[in-house]
Amino acid sequence: MSDNTPGHTTVKKDGYEITFHPAFSSRCTIKGSGADGSETELYKQKDKHVFKNGEKHPKKHVFKIKGGKHGRDLEMEIKDPRHHVARIIVEFYADGHEPGSTMKAESVEVVEVDNFSKTCPPDC
Questions:
Q1: Is residue 1 part of a domain?
Q2: Residue 52 placed within a domain
Q3: What is the 3-class SS of the chain, one letter each residue?
Q4: What's the pLDDT tens digit per position in 87-99?
Q5: How many domains does the chain have?
Q6: Beta-bridge partners for 65
Q7: What is the mean pLDDT of residues 49-71?
Q8: What average pLDDT does this structure show over 15-36?
Q9: Which CA distances in Å does 14 have to 93, 99, 122?
Q10: Which of 36, 7, 3 is nearest to 17 (CA)?
């Protein structure tokens, strides 16, 4: 789905770029773990998302996050035909993480995407 995300919104803040569907994401934060427990709000819904031309809540959409101090590059396709996902939480490893290594790797960032967006319909 890369680079083809109709109906999605892209926001850039503090070196991060996130892409999401505005009928899904009401808020997106990224938080450091350990000593760097700072939280950055990358997006917060201000106004209701108004569906146009008969559009409805998507049954499939994407979430992307790029950049930041660790150079993130993640794209997730969410297939949720019954709209059961309330929140997505992803923990990121530190730079240099080696998949399959016997060394336990700690996470250094957590991104959280909340699905409590207000839309019209149903609330117009």
A1: no
A2: yes
A3: CCCCCCCCEEEEECCEEEEECCCCCCEEEEEECCCCCCEEEEEECCCCEECCCCCCCCCEEEEEEEECCCCEEEEEEEECCCCCCCEEEEEEECCCCCCCCCCCCCEEEEEEEECCCCEECCCC
A4: 999 999 988 888 8
A5: 1
A6: 18, 74
A7: 92
A8: 89
A9: 19, 28, 33
A10: 3
For 100-111, the pLDDT digits (tens) are 777 777 888 999
Q: HEC states along 45-79? A: CCCCEECCCCCCCCCEEEEEEEECCCCEEEEEEEE
- Residues spanned by the domain of 102: 9-120
This prediction has a pTM of: 0.86
Retrieve residue 35's tokens: 């000593």
CA distance 43 to 49: 14
